[in-house]
Amino acid sequence: MEWKTVAASMFPLGFDIAERDDFLCGSAQLAGGPIAVVGTCGHAPIGVEIALAQAGFVLDGIRQHPGRPILILVDTQGQRLRHRDEMLGINSYMAHLGKCVDLARRHGHRTVALVYDQALSGGFITSGLMADACYALPDATIRVMGLPAMARITKVPEERLVALAATNPVFAPGPENYLRMGGIEAIWQGDLAAALEQALGQAHGDDTRSALGLARGGRKLAQPVIEAIVAGKHALAS
After folding, report:
1. In a domain? residue 214
2. Which CB contacts under 8 angstroms, 24+ apart, belong to 169-172?
3. What pTM was estimated for this model as a whole?
4. d(C-alpha 28, C-alpha 73), whole Å
5. pLDDT tens-digit profile, the chain (238 residues)
C-alpha cells in the first residue's frame, strides 16, 4: 500500500512527512500531541545510507523532542545485498540503528512500528522488531526468508518446507503467522488513527513476544526456555 494513503488514514489531523530516496521522516499530529514518523517506502533495500539516516533522525528526536512518541513505517526488502555495503560494514550500521531505537525507548519515547507493505530480513529486525510493539496491515508481506532461498541454504527440499509451512508458522510468511508467533502485536483493520492511539497507550517497553507466541500456539518453546534459564540463574545466585 502507498505510504501516503496510510498516513492520510492514520493522521486525519495532518502530517508533514518527507520522502527522499525511499527514506521517510517527519511528524504528524495526534489528538494527544505530535508524533515523530520515520521509515521506508518503495520496498527499500536498507543500505548504509538509509540505516544511518533513520538512526540520525531518531537521535535528533531524542535531543530536540524529549519523550515524543515515534512511529516506524516499515516497507523493506531487507538489507541491501551489495559488495560495497558489506565492505562498509552494513551489519554495524544496522546494529547502530537498532541501538538508537533502544536508546529512544530508554529515554521515555514510546515506539510503535507498522508494517504497511513489506517486511523482510534484517531491514525488519533492526526497525520494526526493535519497537515497543509491532503491528501490520492485513495485506502486508512479512517473512524472514523465502522458502526457495531457505531450501538452498538449509539443503532441505522446498517441498518439505512448503509442507511444514502449512502447519508451522515459523516457516510460513504473512502477518497471521507472525501474529501467532508473537512477532507482531495485532493486525490493524478499520480505523487506523484509533488503532495507533490505542497502541501508543499500551506501549510499555517490555518484550512479551515469547509469552505471546506461547499463548497463541505459534512458539511453544521460547518462553519455557527463557523461564528455565532465569530459574537456573536464580538457583546459582542462591
Report:
1. no
2. 169/218, 170/218, 170/219, 171/147
3. 0.89
4. 13
5. 799 999 999 999 999 999 999 999 999 999 989 999 999 999 999 999 999 999 999 999 999 999 999 999 999 988 888 899 989 999 999 999 999 999 999 999 999 999 999 998 778 888 888 999 999 999 998 887 778 878 888 899 999 988 888 887 877 778 888 899 898 999 999 999 999 999 999 988 788 889 999 999 888 899 999 999 998 887 777 7
Among candidate residues 118, 114, 111, the one with its CA nearest the CA of residue 135: 114
d(CA 34, CA 57): 15
Number of domains in the chain: 1
**Residue 67 phi, psi dihedral angles, 5° rounding:** 80, -5
Range of the domain at 193: 3-137+188-206
